[in-house]
Amino acid sequence: MLITQDLEKLLALQAVDVGLDDVSRREAEARARLDAAQHAVAEFKELVKQEKKLLDDALKEHKTIEIEVKTQEEKVKKYTGQMYEVKTNKEYTALKEEIDKAKGESGKMEDRLLQLMLKEDELKGAGSRRAAELAEKEKAGKAVEAEVNGELAACTKVRGDLDAQRGGMMASFGKPLLFRYEQIRSARGGAPLAKIVEAPGGGEAVCGACHVTVRPQVVVLAARQEEMVFCESCARILYLENTPAPNPA
Ligand SMILES: [Zn+2]
Predict the structure, then answer these.
(1) What are the domain boundaries of the chain?
(2) Could you list which residues have their CB under 5 Å from ion ligand 1?
(3) Predicted local confidence at residue 8, as pLDDT
(4) What CA–CA distance (Å, rounded) separates 229 from 235?
(5) In whole angstroms, how far apart are CA 226 and each of 3, 116, 246?
(6) CA distance 211 to 233
(7) pLDDT by residue (tens digit) across 3-19?
(8) Ligand 1 center–CA 238 separation, angstroms
(9) What integer pLDDT is reported at residue 241 of this predicted model?
(10) Of 14, 17, 156, 239, which is most buried with the most CB atoms under 10 A?
């Protein structure tokens, strides 16, 4: 008894299964694309939040320093007033030192204020652009989402068709054959059947999947189609394409 029909059925099943693998790959890619798009929007929102916090902090510090500058200025005013009332050189020198100290503090704070104002300007400038930028990113994210949803719907349709095809095929398989097929598929993934092909250099026959040499005896067995032959390296079911149909007579 020849196994030609079994091989044909297995190849048809394999075509369906490889199609299902392709659908799964497309779905995974689509989901990854959506994840990336959503991540980009979330990341941008986080950036906007951080910039807003930096601005709030700068404005808070700005206010505190302004109050402190005023305090130092009042000290200077007070000490300057007192200078007219001092009676000794020592008192005068002490007051002069206090005034210099207060002025020094003020100066340092003015420098810090200048830094803060530059930072505030920069952050305010960025902030005013962010709303439009975020809207644009959200729009791009929505576009990707719509595209991905379309792709997923298409995949669901193809998967449904392939599942139906597969279901229809099942009845025609003998249990041991199907078991063997599924076993190879779960161990190797992808296609459980491999075509015997000629090695790129020519001459030698190799397994089309793992590219390991197929012994001439095995090639002969595959050509006879009297029994299933397996790759001695990857265990896939081997077949020869365009095997001349054996003469029934
Ligand atoms: Zn192989």
Answers:
(1) 20-170, 175-239
(2) 207, 209-210, 231, 233-234
(3) 94
(4) 9
(5) 6, 87, 10
(6) 9
(7) 999 999 999 999 999 99
(8) 8
(9) 87
(10) 239
Taking the centre of ligand 1 as the mean of its atom positions, its distance from the CA of residue 247, in whole angstroms, is: 29
Determine the distance separating the centroid of ligand 1 and the alpha carbon of 192, expressed in angstroms: 10
Ligand 1 centroid distance, CA of 207 (Å): 5
Cα(244)–Cα(114) distance, integer angstroms:
89
Task: Quick: pLDDT tens for 166-202.
Answer: 999 999 898 999 999 999 999 999 999 999 999 988 7
Q: What is the pTM of this model?
A: 0.75
Beta-carbon count within 10 A of 24 CB: 12
Alpha carbon of 23 to ligand 1 centroid (Å): 25
Handedness of CA 128, 132, 135, 137 (dihedral sign): negative
Compute the distance from residue 16 Cα to the ligand 1 centre, in Å: 21
Cα angle: 171, vertex 11, 181; to 5 degrees: 65
CATH code for the structural domain at 20-170? 1.10.287.1490
The pLDDT, as a whole number, for residue 143 is 98
Spatial CA neighbour of 221 closest among 211, 212, 210, 231: 231
Spacing, Cα 243 to ligand 1 middle (Å): 19
Alpha-carbon gap, residue 184 to 218, rounded angstroms: 19
| 225 φψ region: left (φ > 0), alpha (ψ -120 to 50), beta (else) | left
Do residues 205 and 198 lie in contact, with contact meaning Cβ atoms separated by under 8 Å? Answer: yes
